[in-house]
Amino acid sequence: xxxxxxxxxxxxxxxxxxxxxxxxxxxxxxxxxxxxxxxxxxxxxxxxxxxxxxxxxxxxxxxxxxxxxxxxxxxxxxxxxxxxxxxxxxxxxxxxxxxxxxxxxxxxxxxxxxxxxxxxxxxxxxxxxxxxxxxxxxxxxxxxxxxxxxxxxxxxxxxxxxxxxxxxxxxxxxxxxxxxxxxxxx
Length: 186
Ligand SMILES: Cc1cc2nc3c(=O)[nH]c(=O)nc-3n(C[C@H](O)[C@H](O)[C@H](O)COP(=O)(O)O)c2cc1C
What we know:
By secondary structure, this protein is of the alpha+beta class. The protein has helices at about 5-10, 25-35, 55-70, 75-90, 105-130, and strands at about 45-50, 90-100, 130-135, 155-165. The chain is globular. It binds flavin mononucleotide. Flavin mononucleotide (FMN) binds near residues 135 and 172.
């Protein structure tokens, strides 16, 4: 698959077959992530990798966090089931963390941008090998309850969790605006 095809055909997949993503693939995805452009070569990333067999531990941490926060038991059970359905079928998770620089807003912004490029490198490289993924920044996959699971340090930001796996179900389709509606030559 060439780069242009990978860019055009990658979609966010949220349904998987439960097939594990091999360690060698996970390691290479991280290596490819590190080739993302990063200003001043700060290499502002770390990667917490959860193999398929460790996903129940991640689920356990999420469940613990939800129960600890309290609230309506029925609602919690629903949330847990939703997360469980995804993690049960996922092949692995790679979470990208970065050390933030609150004292240097420009550096901080550039580092975040570099991390976003790294995330996309991984998504495209995974897709090129037949692994779908979705980038999660919200909800239960990156919430505060998981910070200790990720071994996040106080100034770390969780840029996103990449939930990976062999896709199942229907291929999601999304539209994009036409370049003619977006560009102007100057
Ligand atoms: C910064 C960022 C955060 C995202 N967070 C989430 C998320 O929390 N949950 C989710 O389901 N998808 C998330 N996505 C995926 C987008 O929803 C998805 O890329 C968008 O719907 C377009 O679909 P496509 O990736 O199939 O083209 C995120 C994407 C980006 C770039």
